[in-house]
Amino acid sequence: MKILVTGNMGYIGPSVINQLRTSYPGSTLIGFDIGYFGNCITSTEMLPECRVDFQYFADIRQFPIDLLSGVDAIVHLAGISNDPIGNKFEEVTLDINYRASIELAKKAKEAGVTSFTYASSCSMYGFADDSPRTETSSLNPLTAYAKSKAFTERDLEPLASDQFKITCLRFSTACGWSERLRLDLVLNDFVAGAVTSKRITILSDGTPWRPLINVKDMARAIDWAISREAGNGGKFLAVNVGSDGWNCQVRDLAEGVAKVIPNVGISINQNAPPDKRSYRVNFDLFRKLAPGHQPKFDLITSIRELKEGLEAMEFKDEDFRNSKYIRLNTLTQLQNKGLLNQNLEWVYKK
Ligand SMILES: NC(=O)c1ccc[n+]([C@@H]2O[C@H](COP(=O)([O-])OP(=O)(O)OC[C@H]3O[C@@H](n4cnc5c(N)ncnc54)[C@H](O)[C@@H]3O)[C@@H](O)[C@H]2O)c1
């Protein structure tokens, strides 16, 4: 197997590479990333990217088709990966997440790649205060980020064929420890607050529903998607990935953290405007199709591993919401330093 993983230098990437190394021993793993967050690592021993056979630093918007020679499978993670960045860089988000993804899939099909796994998102359900969303529920993408995911799925579908299987994994919100940690994710933010200042500050009124999944369970779902037979789900499949037990309200997550880390205070913003993003998700289809790859990590284990990881790196930054572990901060700083232009391209290459 020759597997190309785009965006492998992101939060999820290291877990995906570890999983693929275990599941496909002897395979050739190729990483492809623009390197926006290259210095955001938690491991002091080894760059996580040393685990791939080849690492390319390049922009997915100018993807060279030559790299696809002999590639069997693509795991496409590269992208602008949250609402705050998407809101600030709307058109760039559509360029990278949507247009470049469709171009990549077209090139992959042309080059004879047989499996294309796309990191989609449940955020395309937007706001839904009634029953849990299934894959056939109507989409309600409210932000540039969510729209980019919905448009990509829509335009990927007609590209699927018997020789080119496409799987869109609609992931729940990620959480958990990673060698490329991010703290702009709800659970990670709460644990960082609890560890550094014994305080969790919920920016909303705590009521929004948000399904979660540990990054290592995301990697296991990707592993499943790569090797699933087209008979199991079809040549094009969009599936919700997560578990019923993790359909939580934001305040439940905070209370979970306070159970694991003693003497932590929780503040809720009672005056917050209603969160536009709130939904519960139905995971029946994923349970049916991938019984051997169901999420294993629960909330408490994920909180513990985050706590232990932050303590091991002696993380004490109470002001972490302004740190490099918040992706928008990193991109903004790179721009302020003149290293990225307004299209989020490296300046030195132009
Ligand atoms: N983290 C989540 O909660 C979550 C949930 C659902 C889906 N996803 C999706 O999973 C994927 C990976 O998420 P993540 O949390 O690891 O994100 P991340 O932001 O940590 O990593 C994304 C990676 O993509 C790279 N990248 C961005 N633009 C690029 C470009 N133009 N060319 C090449 N590389 C580029 C970045 O350098 C980064 O290393 C994303 O597509 C994201 O939308 C994430």
Bound molecules: nicotinamide-adenine-dinucleotide
- Overall mean pLDDT: 95
Beta strand count? 12
Tell me the span between the first and last alpha carbons. Answer: 35 Å
Q: Write down the secondary-structure element order.
A: EHEEEHHEHEEHEEHEEHEHHH
User: What sort of overall outline do the alpha carbons produce when their principal axes are compared?
Assistant: globular
Kindly estimate the percentage of residues that lie in beta strands according to DSSP: 15-25%
Major sheet attributes = 7 strands, parallel
Q: Helix content range of the residues, please?
A: 25-40%
Poorly predicted regions are none
Strand order of the largest sheet: 3-2-1-4-5-6-10
- Annotation field: number of helices: 10
* Rg of Cα set: 19 Å
Structural class: alpha/beta
Describe it.
- The protein has 350 residues and is α/β, with parallel strands linked by helices.
- Helix content is 34%, strand content 17%.
- It has ten helices and twelve strands.
- It has helices at 13-23, 83-88, 90-111, 144-156, 186-197, 215-227, 250-260, 284-289, 299-312, 327-336; strands at residues 2-6, 28-33, 54-57, 73-76, 115-121, 165-171, 173-175, 199-202, 209-214, 236-241, 247-249, 265-268.
- The strands form three sheets. It has a seven-stranded parallel beta sheet with strand order 3-2-1-4-5-6-10, sandwiched between helices. Strands 7-9-11 form a three-stranded mixed beta sheet.
- Helix 1 links the parallel strand 1 and strand 2 (28-33).
- Helix 1 (13-23) crosses helix 6, helix 3 (90-111) packs parallel to helix 4 and helix 7 crosses helix 9.
- The chain is globular.
- The chain starts with a strand and ends in a 14-residue tail after the last helix.
- The mean pLDDT is 95.
- Nicotinamide-adenine-dinucleotide binds next to strand 5 and strand 7.
- Nicotinamide-adenine-dinucleotide is lined by residues 7, 9-13, 33-37, 59-61, 77-79, 81, 96, 119, 121, 171, 173-174, 182, 185, 327.
